[in-house]
Amino acid sequence: MSAPLVLARRLTISGRVQGVGFRYALADEARARKLSGWVRNRRDATVEALIAGPEAEVEAMIAWARRGPPAARVAEVKVEPTSADCSDFEIVSTA
Question: What pLDDT, on the 0 to 100 scale, is given for residue 45?
Answer without folding.
Answer: 96
